[in-house]
Amino acid sequence: MSGNTLGVLGSDVKVGLADGTKIAYANLDYAASAPCLREVADVVGELLPLYASVHRGAGALSQLCTEKYELARASVTAFLGCRADDVVVFTRNTTDALNLLAHAVPPDTVVVTFEGEHHANLLPWNEVVRLPAPSSPESAVSAVETALAAQTAGHPILLAVTGASNVTGEVWPLADLAATAHRFGARIAVDAAQLAPHRRIDVAALGLDYVAFSGHKLYAPFGVGVLAGRADWLDRARPYLAGGGATAHVGDRPGDVDWATGAARHEAGSPNVIGAVALAAACDALAAADLEALQADEDALTTRLHDGLAEIPAVRILGRGWPDRLGIVSFTVDGIETRTVSTRLAEEFGIGVRDGLFCAHPFTRRLLDQAGATAPTAVRASIGIGTTSEHIDRLIAGVRAIAGS
Ligand code: PMP
Fold first, then answer.
1. Where is the Aminotransferase class V domain positioned along the sequence (predicted)?
2. Whole-structure pTM over 0.80, yes or no?
3. Domains (range + CATH), the chain
4. What is the ipTM of this complex?
5. Ligand 1 site residues, Cβ closer than 6 angstroms
C-alpha cells in the first residue's frame, strides 16, 4: 500500500503449496486477526527484558511497568476520543469486554440489538429485543426509532450494535444511532472489533456511551481488549472478577470488602501489561498515521476485491450494497463446497481466508439465503495494512480457477 509508512510483520513468510513449491503467504484473513505492526513489535521487544509486577511493587521496574500500563490506558483513551470521565478497562478481547458490560448493566435493562451482530454482541445480554438485520443504514436507524418508541418508561435501555459487520464489512451509521438512542433516553454500546482498525472512532463526537474492541484485530497480539465508556454502571456493578487489585479495603470478616471504583474494579488479578502496552503502541501508530491515505488505499483494494470476485459468474457475494464498507467480502462459489474453496486457495495459491458462518450464524444464514446461495456457509476475504494488489489478484485468479471460469 502507498500513502502510509506503517508496515506489518510476516509479509515475507513463505508457505508450501501442494505441488511442492513455495510462495509468499497472502494473508486475507485480517477480520479474524490482523498481523502485528512493526511499531508494536518494537515496543514489545523493548519491554520484554524489563517487565515486572505492576501497581504494588516498589522496585524500579515495577514502577516503570505501572507507569507504562497507565500510559497505555491514556493512549487508548486518546485513540478513542473518550470523555474525561470515561473509564477504560483492559479486558481479554471484545467478547470479554461485551460480557463485562452485560454483567454491569442494571438488572432491569432492556437491550436492543440486531440480528446482524457477531455472537459476542448477541449472546451476552439477558433481556433482549432482537431486530431483524436492516437492509440499509437508514432502515437501521428507523428500526431503532420504532423499537425504542415501543419501550415502556422506567427501565434503562441499551442499544448494542456493531460498528461494522464482520461478514459484509458494512459500516453502521453510529452518529445517527447514538442520537436516536439518546432521544429516547437510551444508551448505545458499539462493538468496534472490526471498525476500530479501519476508521477513526471519536466516542465523544459520535456520542457513544460504550465501545469494545480487540488488540489482535488492531495489529497487536492476542490477549488484550478494551471496554471504554460511562463510569456509573461500571462503578455500581459487582466487580467482574473478585480478587486482588479490585479492592480498596478488605476487612477481617468474610464479606467485609470495599471495592475499588474505576477501571481497577473490573481488572482484578495481575494485568496483561505487555498486551496493554502492545495495544497502546498500535493505537499510537494508527493515531499518528495518515488515516485518510490509509483508508483511500484500503478502499481501492476493497473495490478491486469486490469487483474482481463479482465478475466471476459462479460467485455470489453476501451483502446489501451499503455505501460505506470495510475491506471484507464474503462469498460462495456455485456448485463448490465452501471448505473446498478455502482449502484449495490455501494449498494451490498460498492464500489464507476463512470459511464458515463467522460467529454470526443467524445473519450469515440470512445473507446466504438472500444471495440464493446453495452452500450453507461462505468464504470470507478481508484486508488491511500490508495487503497488496497482488494478494487480491491472486485470490481472484484462484477463485476463478476453482470456479472453472
Ligand atoms: N465482534 C466482531 C464484529 C468481531 O468480528 C469479532 C471477532 N471475529 C468479535 C466481536 C469478537 O472478538 P474477539 O474474538 O476478539 O473477542
1. 27-395
2. yes
3. 14-30+290-403 (3.90.1150.10), 40-288 (3.40.640.10)
4. 0.99
5. 93-95, 118, 120-121, 162, 166, 191, 193-194, 214, 216, 359
